[in-house]
Amino acid sequence: MSSLQPVRGTHDLFGEDMRRHREVLDIGRAVANRFGYDEIITPIFEKTEVFKRTLGDTSDVVTKEMYTFSTKGGDEITLRPENTAGVARAFMSNGLSQQLPVKFFYGGPMFRHERPQKGRQRQFHQAGVELLGVEKPQGDVEIIALGVHFLKELGVYGDTVLELNTLGDTESRKAYRDALVAYFSKFKDQLSEDSLDRLEKNPLRILDSKNERDRKLVADAPIFSDYLNDFSKDFFAQVKDGLDDLGIAYEINPRLVRGLDYYCHTAFEFTTTALGAQGTVLAGGRYDGLVKMMGGPATPGVGWASGVERLAMLMTREIVIAKPVVIIPMGEAADKRASVLADELRYAGYRTELGYSGNLKKRLIRANKQNACAAIIMGDDELAENSATVRDLVSGDQSVVKLDELVEKLAIYR
Ligand code: ATP
Ligand code: MG
Predict the structure, then answer these.
(1) Is 121 touching ligand 1 by the criterion CB < 6 Å?
(2) Among 25, 221, 222, 378, which is 20 to 30 Å from 92 by CA?
(3) Which of 71, 84, 77 is nearest to 40 (CA)?
(4) What residue ranges define each of the domains in the chain, with the CATH number in brackets?
(5) Which residue numbers delimit the Aminoacyl-transfer RNA synthetases class-II family profile domain (predicted)?
(6) Closest ligand 1 atom number to CA of residue 278
(7) Beta bridge partners of 306
(8) Which residues of 39-75 are buried (b: 16+ CB within 10 A; e: fewer)?
(9) Whose CA is nearest to atom 9 of ligand 1?
């Protein structure tokens, strides 16, 4: 029955996949914490306005990818396609502009209606950070360094390249925009329909087009660096300088633009060739215009978002999980005593399993499958003496241990 399958582009996460997913989020949270970023959880849906206004009418996300619906109360709601707009909304809703800088880490599901393929789902997860209230390039450097620490700790940094570009300030973007309009207008007959639309509304976006014909034209388009004013050049120089100080390598990619409307100055992506076509694992930049665009006080911002599924795929390190202790009661009295013992061991911090049923051999086989470190075998005879047999499942060694000394004796398995 097809309704027993999850919705196209969504997945159930459990077992090894879940552990890897959890590891990515845990490491992201821990690293962000070290940089002084506290966690925020914003709602997974917001008023559609929040995204429409900020992401821009011409972005792929807004034009094609949003899950939008009307509620019973008549509100227009959208499942969040990304979390920066939500964090900015929360920043304003909670009056946080009084305590700058504001530094947040977030992790959770995002929703985009796009064609599912490897590394591209309709419900996927991002871990990200936002730094609000720092206008200096120091902020950009800190945010990128945070990304580097994160990727290093996941053990995937060596598989990635940091691509870097600048989108300049408003004046530079205006000059570049004019140059792009002049250039692409000569090729109106060759541009894709989407890009014709972008030419009117946001020509920068054409650079981000995935259409074959557009890409050919983009190859010869004017380059941003030729249109940067001195302020923007200097800002970018300081970002690069700060990265050099930290020994962070990067490659300048003059074609790199962020897909969303609110970015300025620094734009960056950590990309990998190890995942096929979906090669961007972490992407971000500066978004000084965002909070104001949403009706709040002018507040500079910089941040990034990473794809948790893509990072989990890239990560090769093994996730260590605690090996359980398995209690195997043989007999009715032992069953009863086993549940009390399991409770004690769990309070003492041991991952504890009960070998529920079957003969001793079967239960031991199951314990080995569960990768248990030790089995506590409780027969009625031993119980009468208030003891049990502890069997080391690696060496096979056995010894009889008094029940009240068990917690202590198991300490070697910690
Ligand atoms: P792409 O070019 O791959 O569509 P994007 O520019 O739309 O990426 P961002 O909005 O910058 O992506 O999101 C940041 C990160 O989130 C991406 O680099 C990627 O790792 C991840 N991501 C984005 N969309 C998806 C998706 N549909 N499925 C899985 N991960 C995704
Ligand atoms: Mg996309």
Answers:
(1) yes
(2) 25
(3) 84
(4) 15-169+229-314 (3.30.930.10), 325-413 (3.40.50.800)
(5) 29-329
(6) 3
(7) 127, 282
(8) ebebeebbebebbbbbbbebbbbbeeebeeeeeeeee
(9) 283
112 lines ligand 1 (CB under 6 A): yes
Ligand 1 atom nearest residue 120's Cα = 28
Please provide the DSSP assignment of 360-410 as one string.
HHHHHHHHHHTT-SEEEEEEHHHHHTTEEEEEETTT--EEEEEGGGHHHHG
Burial class (CB in 10 A: 0-12, 13-18, 19+), 371: exposed
Amino acid 246 reads L
What are the tokens at 291?
Answer: 């909070």
Residue 1 pLDDT: 58
Burial of 95 (0-12, 13-18, 19+ CB in 10 A): exposed
Q: What are phi and psi of 139, to 5 degrees?
A: -65, -45
Tokens of 89: 């909304």
Please tell me the distance from the alpha carbon of residue 242 to that of residue 181, in angstroms, as a whole number.
34
Question: 108-153 pLDDT, tens per residue?
Answer: 999 999 999 999 999 999 999 999 999 999 999 999 999 999 999 9
Residue nearest to ligand 1 atom 7, measured at CA: 259
Q: Which of the listed residues 114, 209, 280 should we mutate to test ligand 1's pocket, taking the one with most ligand atoms within 8 A of CB?
A: 280
Q: What is the pLDDT of residues 260-283, one digit of tens each?
A: 667 899 999 999 999 888 899 999
Of the chain, the percentage scoring pLDDT greater than 90 comes to 77
Both tokens assigned to 43: 């709602």
- pLDDT confidence tier of residue 52, bands split at 50, 70 and 90: confident
State which ligand 1 atom lies nearest to the alpha carbon of 60: 7
pLDDT in tens, 218-234: 999 999 899 999 999 99
What is the distance between the alpha carbons of residues 368 and 355, in angstroms, rounded to a whole number? Answer: 11
Residues in the chain, how many? 414
